[in-house]
Amino acid sequence: MAGKRNQRRAQLVLLLLCLVALAVLLSGRWPGLEEWVYRLEHIFGGSTVLPEGVLEIHFIDVGQGDAVFIVTASQKILVDGGERGDTVLNYLRQKGVKKLDLVVGTHPHSDHLGGLVNVLQEIPVSEVMDPGVVHTSKLFEEYLAIIDEKGIRFTVARAGVARNYEDGLILQVLHPEEPLLSSLNDTSIVLKVTFGQVSFLLTGDAEEAAEKELLDRGYNLRSTVLKVAHHGSATATSPSFIRAVRPEVAVIMVGENNSYGHPEAEVLELLQSHGVEIYRTDRHGTIIVTTNGETVETVTQKEEKAS
Ligand SMILES: [Zn+2]
């Protein structure tokens, strides 16, 4: 028995060494310690158990779509779930997530809502937040049916709705005030996530009309990290919006070689001209931003590859 176990352990060590060699070969460099921890955790499915005073936001690589996982020592929140499928469900399982305190569907488009259906089916969820606009897709009907069937608390998100968690995590809905019926994208729930001195602005697919409303309402939009709206399309991220947010870090959630041409060069140039550090899921894979409420650190699944 012991011999067998030793043999198994030796095999594992060998496998690990092979993976290390392979990663070095593929990347052509020796990655930093943090990147190693990320890679090994990713390969072996390390669960996310955080100490008090730490917040992680995972911008999960789902190709063309959004999925943002917010985690502290006591809260687990998912904002959007990418296209229909098990990508996000599997990611959460790999991280050891047994239940979610809150799921936010920013708006009913399939690249945000699709994977939420799979998550809602399999993982117990305490509350769903939704912009409360009617959409006549099969997917949306299915999503509502699961929420109803499982008796999940359903909150229509309106500007002013907030959650203040005991561990210091604050979630504020900044948008919509009332849905903008002309565009489903502009009904996107815009969330400000604050943890100590650090804040994140999650914008869904909100475009310029929504940005204008946010600016007109005079909110404090200033945020350390901006999830760039609508996959970096030129219909969002106006210069005045960026001047108000003044992010240090921008995350663009976008599929490699997507047919929309996202992200738009003018958006990238605007961010660069403001000295913003840019991360993209098409180039970096999954992006994890960690904060202690004072500083932020970013770890990516992949070293940026030029395209
Ligand atoms: Zn989208």
How would you sum up this structure, described in words?
The longest helix has 26 residues, at 2-27. The protein contains nine helices and 15 strands. Helix 4 (110-122) runs parallel beside helix 5 (138-149). The chain has a single domain (49-300), classed as 4-Layer Sandwich (Metallo-beta-lactamase, Chain A). It has an eight-stranded mixed beta sheet with strand order 6-5-4-3-2-1-14-15, with helices on one face. A seven-stranded mixed beta sheet has the order 7-8-9-10-11-12-13. The chain is globular. Helices cover 33% and strands 21% of the residues. It has 307 residues and is an alpha/beta fold. It has helices at 2-27, 33-44, 87-94, 110-122, 138-149, 208-216, 239-245, 265-273, 281-284, and strands at residues 55-59, 68-71, 76-79, 102-104, 127-130, 153-156, 162-164, 169-175, 190-195, 198-202, 225-227, 249-252, 277-280, 287-291, 296-300. The structure holds zinc ion. The site of zinc ion has 5 residues, from helix 4. Residues 109, 111-112, 205, 231 line the site of zinc ion.
**What's the tally of helices?**
9
Average pLDDT level: 90
Q: According to CATH, what is the topology?
A: Metallo-beta-lactamase, Chain A
* Sequence of secondary-structure elements: HHEEEHEHEHEEEEEHEHEHEHEE
Number of domains: 1
Alpha carbon gyration radius: 20 Å
Q: Structural class of the secondary structure composition?
A: alpha/beta
Morphology call = globular
Helix content: 25-40%
Bound molecules: zinc ion
Strand adjacency order, main sheet: 6-5-4-3-2-1-14-15
Low-confidence parts:
none
The CATH superfamily appears as Ribonuclease Z/Hydroxyacylglutathione hydrolase-like
> Would you state the CATH class?
Alpha Beta
What would CATH call the architecture?
4-Layer Sandwich
Number of strands: 15
Terminal Cα separation, in Å?
51 Å
